[in-house]
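Batch job 17 of 40 flagged for manual review because the log was empty.
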Amino acid sequence: MLAALLPLLIATAEPAAAPMVGDAILHYVRSNRDGSEPEHVVQFRPTRSGIAVYKWVSKCTTAAYVTAEMDEAVGKGRSYVAGKVAPDGSQAKFGTLTLDDATGELKVDITPPGGTRIQQSHKLQRRPYLLYDFDFADLNAFLQEHPEEVHFSFSLPVVWPGGAGLFRDLGTLHANYDSDGVRDGRKVRVFFLGVEGPKSATGMLWVDAAHSYIVEAELSLPNHAEYRDFRLKLEKVEHGGQAAWDVLTKSHYADCPTGN
């Protein structure tokens, strides 16, 4: 009986949503949990393993343009390129961060605009890892590629200049599925977040049930020095792929006053 029903069940099953590679552009605002210190964070996956992030506070001022290449499983970052938006919308590169898989070290080679060259390395506590100041763009790619996950853990390094070097190790982020729900009109999967590290932290994660992108995330742990804690909230999903992405970055300095 079951064998006879199996072809029918397969034929009528809802197909899994494909990763939003090469099309969807996710517009977020990163802020403190109370909404203060807002910054726009726009994420795009031009390829399955590639990520591009455009971050800005206001148009016509300096904006970050960071790209990353994930491993084959889209589980951890292999390399990152730091840059800013150039006047023509391209990425003006000024440094790299790469993972040495053999040693488990993140290696930085960066020359900040107007600054001197910096070369440092940071030993990861464990792998996989998330680069926390990448604003969960790497986590977003992981979730889209692994929608079945109900528990996952990542070490949580962050680029945070000062003290002994460029990095801080915030410990290990744990996520545990709790329930299904609705957030901002979207069906979501709800996760509890917790960080074990020098400073313990808790938070929540809401993930779109159909396409597995982050709808909202919050954590009682900042990912930049000027913040008290962390919230990433989806504003909209734009479609159009690379062409739409290029229009976005080119628009940053469009119609700006002379001299910007």
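Reviewer: the log was empty due to a logging misconfiguration, but the result itself is present. The first helix runs from residue 2 to 12. Unflagging and moving on to job 18.
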